[in-house]
Automatic annotation (TrEMBL), chain A:
One of its GO terms (cellular component) is cytoplasm. The keyword NAD does not apply. The lineage of its organism: Eukaryota, Viridiplantae, Streptophyta, Embryophyta, Tracheophyta. Keywords: Transferase. GO terms for molecular function: glutathione transferase activity. One of its GO terms (biological process) is glutathione metabolic process. It comes from Rubus argutus. This is glutathione transferase. It comes from the Eukaryota. It catalyses: RX + glutathione = an S-substituted glutathione + a halide anion + H(+).
TrEMBL record, chain B:
Belongs to the GST superfamily. Residues 2-82 form the GST N-terminal domain. This is glutathione transferase. It catalyses: RX + glutathione = an S-substituted glutathione + a halide anion + H(+). GO terms for cellular component: cytoplasm. Residues 87-210 form the GST C-terminal domain. GO terms for biological process: glutathione metabolic process. It comes from Rubus argutus. Its EC number is 2.5.1.18. Transmembrane segments: none annotated. It is an enzyme of class 2 (transferase). It holds the Pfam family GST_C. InterPro entries: Glutathione-S-Trfase_C-like, Glutathione-S-Trfase_C_sf, Glutathione_S-Trfase, Glutathione_S-Trfase_N, GST_C, GST_C_Tau, Omega/Tau-like, Thioredoxin-like_sf.
Length: 223, 223
């Protein structure tokens, strides 16, 4: 089964697609990458993800799967090399808990801070910082969320280290507070230096321009 | 202290998902009612400091929060009478639909806390999502899990009792039998299962509770 072809339909500027790329790389899975033009979705894409019409979509042996965290679990179950979830059920539960926390709380508040203005932006920034502070409690004094090496939550949350700093620069709002969340701040720097993760990162100047473009479209200009 | 404890709130469909899973697997547990609306206990705040919500499963003193995370934990710890299929692709689909249910829960329930034009709009949105669920999620299967019930069936189990109660109180029919024949057939099969039949909250107590909740939400919306 793991001998069949693997395709990833993604977008170069998407953090969700990056999670899947990281996992494919970590597990040394050969795959074909297909860049999707999100403004102009291909028939292939719409066929493979009729429900959400979003990327990433992983296609394995012709069978499509959507939702990045669902894809990550699938990859971990199908390719046993370099597992990203721990063995112990309680530890696995903790990993799943924190990954969802990133999606349910951290991501929306960071997006809010990026897209709102004035007082609403400050309020969203505060909420984003509070959520990251809570996320830090899941890390504690560990090197990585996965312990000595990267795991599920590192892969789920790592994108914040790059994207949040862009939001800070473009929207002029503080997201990662180095004083109140020193452990998480150190982890952000550490995790993005891990060779496998670093080599998959999109070119940062291009990403900055891309997000600046977004910002202009969403907010009509300056903060 | 019992080996397995479930902190719950009697009208919560999230709590019932966990009850159904524990009952299906014959896991003995102690149920503890939490007054989540007016008086959260110190114990709840200690066990779920991040979200301060139920359900929380405590196993050998270790707490797990978030119903989907709890279900995965239960599945891994007590593997008999499985909630997930063996095939990794099918497992991923079960997780996808479980996530769909979580992501769409607000869209599916907004009709209950709105009135007039807003309610018409909310009802339509709920129906669009139910349409997707019926066509792509359930399809022609007996249960979401296939021939046997599974995690995704528990995710949508609230449609069998909570939805009709909410429809009755809000005075709007969201899921007509003629418009959603497959979902209706599934509901009939689902609620006849002993695990479900013997584990549902009291219907008239539900009516009273939800009547109160709608009044509360409508009043807050006005203020």
């Amino acid at each position: 089964m793991s001998g069949e072809t693997v395709e990833l339909l993604g977008h170069w500027a998407s953090p969700s697609a990056l999670r899947v790329k990281w996992t494919l790389k970590l597990k040394e899975i050969e795959y074909e990458y297909v860049e999707e033009d999100l403004a102009n979705k291909s028939p292939l894409h719409l066929e493979y993800n009729p429900v959400h019409k979003k990327i990433p979509v992983l296609v394995h042996g012709g069978k499509p799967l959507a939702e990045s965290l669902v894809i990550l679990e699938y990859l971990d179950e199908t390719w046993k090399r370099n597992p990203i979830l721990p063995d112990d059920p309680y530890e696995r539960a903790q990993a799943r808990f924190w990954a969802r926390f990133v999606d349910d709380k951290c991501a929306p508040s960071i997006l809010s801070a990026f897209t709102k203005k004035g007082e609403e932006k400050e309020k969203a920034g505060k909420e984003a910082r509070e959520n990251l502070k809570i996320l830090e409690s899941g890390l504690g004094k560990k090197q990585f969320f996965g312990g000595e090496s990267i795991g599920f939550v590192d892969i789920a949350a790592g994108w914040i280290g790059l994207w949040a700093r862009m939001v800070e620069e473009i929207a002029d709002v503080n997201i990662i507070d180095t004083e109140t969340m020193p452990l998480l701040d150190a982890w952000f720097r550490r995790v993005l230096q891990v060779p496998i993760l670093k080599e998959c990162l999109p070119p940062q100047d291009r990403l900055l321009e891309h997000n600046k473009g977004f910002y202009k479209n969403l907010t009509g200009g300056s903060s | 202290m019992a080996e397995v404890t479930l902190l719950g709130f009697w009208p919560s469909p999230f709590v019932y998902r966990v009850i159904w899973a524990l009952k299906l697997k014959g896991v003995e547990y102690e149920y503890v009612e939490e007054d989540v609306v007016y008086n959260k206990s110190d114990r709840l705040l200690e066990y779920n400091p991040v979200h301060k919500k139920v359900p929380v499963l405590v196993h050998a003193g270790k707490p797990i929060a978030e119903s989907a995370v709890i279900l995965e934990y239960i599945e891994e710890t007590w593997p008999h009478n499985p909630l997930l299929p063996k095939d990794p692709h099918q497992r991923a689909l079960a997780r996808f639909w479980t996530k769909f249910g979580e992501d769409k829960s607000i869209a599916l329930c907004t009709f209950f806390i709105t009135e007039g034009e807003e309610q018409v709009k909310a009802t339509k949105e709920a129906q669009e999502n139910l349409r997707i669920l019926e066509e792509h999620g359930l399809g022609n299967k007996k249960f979401f899990g296939g021939d046997e019930i599974g995690m995704a069936d528990f995710e949508f189990g609230w449609l069998n009792l909570w939805l009709p109660v909410m429809e009755q109180i809000a005075g709007v029919k969201v899921m007509e039998a003629e418009s959603f024949p497959r979902l209706h057939a599934w509901i009939q099969r689902f609620k006849e299962l002993p695990t479900i039949k013997q584990n549902l909250p009291d219907h008239s107590a539900m009516l009273t509770y939800f009547k109160d909740r709608r009044a509360f939400f409508l009043a807050s919306a006005k203020s």
